[in-house]
Design goal:
There is one protein chain. The chain is mostly beta strands and about 375 residues long. Helix content is about 5%, strand content about 45%. It has 2 domains: about 60 residues, no CATH class; about 300 residues, Tachylectin-2, Chain A (5 Propeller), CATH 2.115.10.20. It has a 5-stranded mixed beta sheet, with no helix packed on it. A hairpin with a 5-residue loop joins strand 14 and strand 15.
Length: about 375
């Protein structure tokens, strides 16, 4: 059975999941369509099936483009958990696309051959290891926070003609923490301009002095002149300050510290990520606890605001500064636990929720990607299998 869902399109990519073939198709003139073909595939015959279905789709698209008698009904776009393969050992993912390649940066240690490992993909489904950002902890870290050996929670963005990678260093369970910055003109290691340059400290929290925790940084670009860094984990919740786009460091003109979200004790909210969708700003956060393997209770929540600086409220109108948040995704089976620390990829005409979840048996963190659709002004993701 062939179903056509959404708008129209031309180039397609096949995705197999649960004995269902999914195709995403694009034509520049008319937009996107999603094709779903329900069929029981035998592994040895998939190539033959693909040829038959490709011929079918060529005829279908020809009919659509030349406005003949193809008829289909408007159907609400479906969400899909992408079937990933390859090197998926990822915790705290950050994602961006340069050219035809997607790059995921994540928390990681030298035991795998470098700090802040990188994965790459051409199609969002097949992932390979692609080196790392640092060979060792930057020298400024040992001065600011002695004893730190690892780097956490990267965030990747592009402004002022270069890529900005913000990263966290901390002592786990304390707010003796800092966010640093490294820049690069390209993400392609084959490019002669490829070189990560560390710019050092951006913001710091000090135990016994600050009531917030400077980890889990995220950049949101309001416009060319207004760039913001939001961050936070436990303590008094999610904070934000303005960034000077020229330096990537905190603005000296606007030093206001904004509070965006918090929860009652123990204050389990962290890993903020802000995007703009249509005319509103959306703040995604993770509630509850990560890093406990099969006992992790992370879940992704969201609120929205008319201003990037807040106030953010959930679907019921509860302010996120009062513990509010609308559920995006949580564990619903024994297969995967603690989905959280998300990034949102806004890629051409599609949005994706990128996050990690813990395997229900081994407890190991793994990369997950869901398509993200919008219904009545709120994001919807696919459930975990």
């Amino acid at each position: 059975m062939l179903s056509v869902i959404g708008n129209l399109g031309i180039d397609w990519q096949w995705i197999f999941q649960d004995n269902t073939l999914y195709g995403l198709i694009h034509v520049d003139l008319v937009g996107w369509i999603r094709i779903i073909i329900n069929h029981k595939f035998q592994a040895t015959k998939r190539k033959a099936h693909m040829k038959q279905i490709s011929a079918l789709l060529v005829g279908l698209l020809g009919s659509i483009v030349f406005n003949t008698s193809v008829v289909f009904s408007a159907v609400e776009p479906e969400v899909l958990m992408l079937p990933l393969e390859g090197d998926l050992s990822v915790h705290d993912p950050a994602i961006i696309r340069e050219g035809d390649t997607y790059y995921v940066f994540c928390t990681g240690g030298r035991w795998r051959g470098g700090l802040l490992p990188i994965r790459t993909s051409k199609d969002l489904c097949h992932w390979e290891r692609g080196g790392s950002v640092f060979d060792e902890v930057p020298s400024w870290v040992s001065t600011e926070i002695p004893g730190v050996r690892g780097i956490w929670a990267p965030d990747i963005s592009y402004f002022n003609n270069q890529y900005h990678l913000y990263y966290s260093v901390s002592r786990f369970g304390r707010n003796d923490s800092a966010i640093g910055l490294a820049v690069n003109k390209t993400l392609n290691p084959a490019d002669p301009n490829y070189k990560w340059i560390d710019k050092g400290l951006v913001v710091r929290s000090t135990q016994g002095q600050d009531n917030w925790n400077a980890i889990d940084g995220n950049i949101v670009i309001e416009n060319m002149d207004k760039v913001w860094l939001n961050w936070g984990s436990f303590w008094s919740g999610i904070k934000m300050k303005r960034i000077d786009p020229k330096t990537g460091k905190l603005s000296t003109k606007d030093t206001t510290l904004y509070s965006l979200a918090r929860r009652p004790s123990p204050g389990a909210v962290e890993a903020p990520f802000i995007i703009r969708h249509e005319e509103l700003w959306y703040l995604f956060v993770s509630f509850d606890f990560c890093c406990r393997g099969v006992n992790s209770t992370y879940r992704i929540m969201v609120g929205r605001s008319e201003q990037v600086t807040g106030p953010y409220v959930d679907k019921e109108g509860t302010p996120m500064m009062e513990g509010g948040g609308t559920l995006v995704i949580e564990a619903t089976t024994e297969n995967w636990k603690g989905p959280g620390h998300c990034a949102i990829l806004q890629d051409r005409t599609d949005d994706y929720l990128v996050f990690h979840a813990y395997h229900g048996r081994t407890g190991r963190a793994e990369l997950k990607i869901s398509t993200l659709v919008w219904k009545d002004g709120w994001p919807k993701a696919a459930p975990l299998p």
